[in-house]
Amino acid sequence: MAEDERYRIQVLSRAFSVLDAFDEDRPHMRLDELHRRTAIPKPTLLRIVRTLELERFLVRDDGRYTLGARILTLAHNYLGKTSLPRLAEPHFRRLARTHGLSISLAVLDEIEVVYLAVENPKLELGLQGDLGKRHPAHATAVGKVLLAALDHATLHHRLDGRTLTALTPNTHTDLAALLGELDLVRRQGHAVDDEERGIGIRCVAVPIRDAGGSVMAAMSCAGPTPRCPPESVPRLVAALGEVADEISAQIGFRTVPLP
């Protein structure tokens, strides 16, 4: 690889690190804070930040930086080209009305899940939040469905050596125990988050498949444990499974091959 190409890759990687440093807890940061978060040398960081500001990926106000409108434009462009949230929307509204629970659609990004659609998020006591929210995959029902769909090598590559953060006392923090549950998820075709992401919240999730049969996303229903007791899980799995099958069929997946 040529030296100038390596340099460009390094600059891009650092730019992505700067953008990725912003989150819900740190929506605004000064240059010193960005330096501590990214460990990028200050002269280099300043050049990157100025370029990102020029391209409207960052906005500066009173010496603090925040993500700019260009990020929102890219997100809208991505979601606009992604038919899955649009296909899911009417189904999610119906499920939310029928069961009085929060309905979500998520995809996997390494070892985190990213929510593409959320209906009735307030019913999860604010734990899920808005579109684009991320959560550790190991602590969520949608995440366990998506992790279980990975092949053995990919799964271990992503999880081996990782710290499984405990969000509640019920969160899996032992890799062997998590892998055992993922085996169960593969066999039964659904996953349950039993107060693993937040105390008082139970969640059930099932996969959505693309035309080739691969798991491309997961959908879930969740709510306070009194509204979502253990005995309701089979009923919710059936309801979710029916909708997931409908959405998968719209994408092109067929459980029975064409003659």
Notable traits:
9 helices, 46% helix, 2 domains, alpha+beta, six-stranded antiparallel beta sheet, elongated, two-stranded antiparallel ribbon, Beta-Lactamase, Arc Repressor Mutant, subunit A, 259 residues
How would you describe the overall organization of this protein?
With 259 residues, this protein is of the alpha+beta class. The protein folds into two domains: 3-72, Arc Repressor Mutant, subunit A (Orthogonal Bundle), CATH 1.10.10; 82-251, Beta-Lactamase, CATH 3.30.450.40. 46% of the residues lie in helices and 19% in strands. The protein is built from nine helices and eight strands. A six-stranded antiparallel beta sheet has the order 5-4-3-8-7-6, with helices on both faces. It has a two-stranded antiparallel sheet with strand order 1-2. The longest helix is centred in the last third of the chain and has 19 residues, at 233-251. Residues 125-129 have low confidence and may be disordered.
| Series of secondary-structure elements, N-terminal to C-terminal | HHHEEHHEEEHHHEEEH
Report the C-alpha radius of gyration, rounded.
20 Å
Compute the average pLDDT. Answer: 85
Domain module count: 2
CATH superfamily of the largest domain: GAF domain
Beta-strand percentage? 15-25%
- Judged by helices, strands and strand pairing, the structural class is alpha+beta
Low-confidence stretches: 125-129
- CATH architectural label of the largest domain: 2-Layer Sandwich
Reported by name, the CATH topology of the largest domain is Beta-Lactamase
Helical coverage, percent range:
40-55%
* CATH uppermost class of the largest domain: Alpha Beta
Major sheet characteristics: 6 strands, antiparallel
How many separate helices?
Answer: 9
End-to-end CA span: 49 Å
